[in-house]
Amino acid sequence: MTSEETELITALQKASSQPDTIGLGSIVAHADPYRTLYVARGEVIQDLGDEVIVAWDCWREQSKKADRYFRDELRFWQPE
Q1: Residue 48: what pLDDT?
Q2: Residues 50, 15: Cα–Cα separation, whole Å
Q3: Strand ordering across the sheet containing 27-30
Q4: CA angle at residue 60 from 36 to 37, to 5 degrees?
Q5: Which residues pair with 66 in a beta bridge?
Q6: Do the Cβ atoms of 55 and 71 come closer than 8 Å?
Q7: Per-residue pLDDT for 67 more than 80?
Q8: Taking the CB of the first residue and of the last residue of the chain, which one, N or C, has fewer CB atoms within 10 A?
Q9: Beta-strand (E) ranges in 1-80?
Q10: Beta-bridge mates of residue 68
Q11: What percent of the chain has pLDDT over 90?
Q12: Which parts of 1-80 fold into alpha helices (H)?
């Protein structure tokens, strides 16, 4: 195996061991099972560092379309 192949394998192993992070473009739901948005689906439309702005699908027809959350308040969307 060449040194390039070894480096590529090492980089891929490191990348696969790191957990996914919620960021720009992530499809999310609220992490708290007691929140009304638990089953709502949204997309991260802005990354503010510690916080993100989420546009919720259920609010598309209403004037309030987005809200601000800390990353630990959200989870990745999992279709049911």
Answers
A1: 92
A2: 21
A3: 66-70, 51-56, 42-47, 27-30, 74-76
A4: 10
A5: 55
A6: no
A7: yes
A8: C
A9: 27-30, 42-47, 51-56, 66-70, 74-76
A10: 53
A11: 12
A12: 3-17
Instruction: Using the structure block, give the residue that is written with the tokens 């957990």.
Output: 19
**Angle at Cα 72 formed by Cα 66 and Cα 77, nearest 5°?**
65
Residue 25 CA to residue 4 CA, distance in Å, equals 32
**CA-wise closest residue to 44 among 65, 62, 23:** 23
Q: How far is CA 39 from each of CA 51, 53, 70, 72, rounded to the nearest angstrom?
A: 21, 18, 18, 17
In the structure encoding, which two tokens stand for residue 48, read together? Answer: 């503010």
Tokens linked to 74? 């959200």
Tokens at 66, concatenated = 């987005």
Six-digit token pair at 31? Answer: 């992490």
